[in-house]
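Example 3.2
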Amino acid sequence: MHLYSCQIAIREQPITIMVKFLSLAHAVTLIAVAAASPIARYQSDLSSSGFNSNTNASPALKAALTGAASYNDRQAILFTNPPDATNITFTFINNTVTDSTGGTIALSTVNNFPALIGTKIAMGVGFVNPCGLNVPHSHPRANEFLTVIQGELVAGLVLELNDGGSGHVVGQPAPVNGPIPQVNVTLSNYKGMLFPQGETHFQFNPTCEPALFVAAFDNSDPGRTQIARNFFSNMPDEMLIAAMGSDQEVLDAKRIAEFRDNIPTAVAVVMEECAMRCGLLH
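Structure, written as tokens:
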């Protein structure tokens, strides 16, 4: 059994984790327990600063770990000056503590935390402000297990369904237009939800208080596809119009241009109706 230590400070403080190897389930459990642990606060005084979610890692360190032939080689690269644990310590930073923003998601992946190379895990911490929406998205290379550790989130998952996906086939039922079923659940403290790899999902904070979640991935490079932005990035316009049913009263080149210019790049946005109820819009 391996030992781990981590430090979490709720609300607007950074979150730090020190890892060796941990499974997807262990990662979520570790963070949730640490949220209420006095030991974690003590350990934070002893750990090195390490990496954080605002910086990119050294290409040289990533290359060295990628080429490590054995665990002993890997250990020699990561721990050049014991007891210094800098290379396996990571801080999740909340960059959007200002009201009227949706929030932010801080990720630890192979891009900013080289110690994850070879571990097949990654971690995210979501700081979701009041009325914030983590926009519909998917992770093309990883399953995600998300757990709320402060506040409340409504989580949704669009099911995989492709009835009539082959078109009008002789002897088969005619395709039926319409939305694909979606499942939803309200998550509060220490309740989690699984989002399968590649499936569209979202989280929304319906309250006037901030929420905080942790998410574990079973791939150290999970990726993220934002559904609306990716869809309207397809070219040419005629292809999008055809995909939407070829009704130019519904979607035409002018509307497509407007969508492309206005779809937010941010991973989290504010839901306007909720923001008005909470007095966030001025």
